[in-house]
Amino acid sequence: MRPFDGRHVLLGVTGGIASYKAVSLARLLVQAGATVDVVLSRSAREFVGAITFEAVTGRATCADILDAGNALAHIRLAKTADLVVVAPATADFIARAAQGRADDLLTAVLLATRAPVLVSPAMNDGMWAHRQVLANADHLQSLGYHVLEPAIGPLAFGEGVGPGRMPEPESILVHCGRLLEPISPLAGRHVVVTAGPTREPVDPVRYIGNRSSGRMGVAVAAAAWRRGARVTLVHGPLAVALPDGVTSVAVETTREMRDAVAQALADADVLVMAAAPADFTPAAVADEKIKKTDDAPVLALAHTPDILLDTRALRRPGTIVMGFALETTQVEEHAAAKLARKGLDFIVANDATDPQGGFGVATNRVVILDAQGGREELPVLSKADVAEHLLDRVTEALDGR
After folding, report:
1. N or C: more exposed end of the chain, with fewer CB within 10 A?
2. Is 364 one of the catalytic residues?
3. Which domains are seen in the chain, by residue range?
């Protein structure tokens, strides 16, 4: 899994109730392809046993700098790590790290490493709100460490809900990926992505829509953010979770999506139109629910706005624009016509009747056409892998401008 395959991650675990979640994080890192060494603080060993981490990583844990044979462990670990992630990071650890202490193996590694460091605080909400803890976290960021904002959720037993909870391992994995990703032409660029369906109201209860889940657009947004981009995701109702890191703009109708895209285009470097906006809308929307009677109502339809055409004049010079064409017949012919008519750099064509592509499945089979007449056919891939291929084409185009 990009960009973890073949990379070396040092996972530091400090002592808190969230320590058990670090086991899941270690497993996710290994499943993604990373080699994972785990350093347990003294207090962490009171919460989670070393043998548990050895079972999921296949490697012995590193415990104490004073253990026999460990005198130079901090130097070895510091040099071999591509990333150091501390999860959970307690208030005590954050204070010691902010002071530059080196009184255990983990803090010694932090002083010796030149790898990026990701710190995931986890503690009671009152502790996280304390000015000293916040000052320590701010100081770590000023030193170049990456400090995640704690999640809001259930805390330890009897402590209710509040900020201070360690983010879920899947979220931490995403942030690890961004730090491991090589520098990309997308870094610092503004990428606008659309995803999901739109809904056109018939009455207060019913709407015209389609079967789009939003999975393809969400995958593109997640991959662009991991590559360092600033991502705005304009989306209709999604059947999948929003990705970490992106700015989300939720819309309902095609007109609302058109307006949101128009606003985001002001400083966009890339536009990827992966959404499936409705093509038709009721000519009139009933104020009340239409009752079921013997005679079925006749529904007059009107065209919705064409987002790509309506916003074409708002694109900045040099903006890379990628559209999608989901067709049922003459797939590539219809896609090529849309590519030319709407002034696109790329169009991604796929067949709605393909059981391994289109709506509602985790895979896709696409053909990428470009404005120079190029054609690239991809095999059946996960939508996440398709997203990587699409962004590779986008970055090539950015390099050429």
Report:
1. C
2. no
3. 8-180 (3.40.50.1950), 190-399 (3.40.50.10300)
